[in-house]
Amino acid sequence: MDRPWTVERRLREAAPHEIFEVLRSTIERDHHARAVELLMADYAMTKLQPVGRLPHTRAPLSVYESAPGRAFGAQEPYCVPDAAAAAVTVHLPVSVRGDRLGVLSVTLPDEDGEGPAPAVIEELEECADALAHELVVAERDTDLFLQARRAERLTLAAEMQWQLLPGRSCSRPEYALGAQLEPAYAIFGDSFDWSASADELYLTVNNGMGEGIDAALLTNLAVSALRNARRAGLALHDQAYLADQAIYGQHQGTQYLSALLLRFHLPTGEVEIIDAGSPRIWRVREGAVELIELEAQLPLGMFEDTVYEPQRFTVAPGDRLLFISDGVYDALSPVGEKYSLHALVNSINETRLLPAAQVPRAILQALLGHRGSGPAADDALVMCLDWTGRQAGH
């Protein structure tokens, strides 16, 4: 097998739309693989879509009820032997910095029935990791992998929103993050953003008013203004002020956006937060679920020259924070029954053993069971943050 840096160099030198084909040919040559397939997680995180030339691709597989889905969920290689074919298929997660992109499936000869050697699995894992990094870069220059993620067509508003997001999960030694939006293919107003430096993590959770393109444009304006202020090094209250002025200047108070703005100090767990008419925060600490009460301030863009005052609290190692939008609380069943806080707390408890990246999808699945298959009346957003904290000496 080529050294990892050789594989990485080949992927970097390949045209963006050819990176998987280059990896496929490398694995087939070095390991005599019978088949190599890349499956991308769809926008709803419920299916794994084979990458191929549309429309000539295989049917998608379930994230929950398939062998590749098992590797995707556990984020570990999963081997499936086939004694009749004297082969074994190794399913490997394709992820970068905690962001789960898909699964690489490699079918290898297995004449003796003992499965692949640990060194072979390690080499294939290195290939999957190299592919994940190149996929993130390639998506700037080709639509191939973005198209593969689509189980159905996105609305224009949803296209705008998904392009705005930083990812759907990420992790560092101090924390793990996961977030999901619904309806995934028709989202319009809800959004989230994050950015980390050596000692700080910034999070924003947004709930824009309106529907369709108008809501997507409002959210794009707000997120761009917040990023502009953050990247200029402004304090959290100044970030809120700048975004507030940008939205008010464009809409004169006729449109506004509810938001949570947070800054986490990674060494200490101290949190600075501004609640601008926002989604709510739940904390799970030592098994107890509680709503964090905050002083609600005006939404961004409602009035001119609004002054925002940060509040503070501290997260402890082992804490889980959940950020949940109104589209979850206000969801109605087919007979008009609102999704209750009791049902939400039950859902939070039922997902307590899942990693942060899987929690939003699981909570939204429970919500879908309550709401039924009809069209959603509002967007729904769930973000989960698991806090580990910084270890001494790091």
Automatic annotation (TrEMBL):
Domain PPM-type phosphatase as annotated: residue spans: 174-387
InterPro entries named in the record: Bact_Sigma-Reg (IPR052016), PPM-type-like_dom_sf (IPR036457), PPM-type_phosphatase-like_dom (IPR001932)
Pfam families from the UniProt entry: SpoIIE
Domain of life where this protein originates: Bacteria
SMART domains xrefs: PP2C_SIG
This protein's record includes keyword ATP-binding: no
Record key words, sorted: Hydrolase
Alphabetized Gene3D superfamilies for the sequence: PPM-type phosphatase domain
Keyword Zinc: no
PANTHER family from the UniProt entry: STAGE II SPORULATION PROTEIN E, STAGE II SPORULATION PROTEIN E-RELATED
Protein name as annotated: Serine/threonine-protein phosphatase
Provenance organism: Actinacidiphila acidipaludis
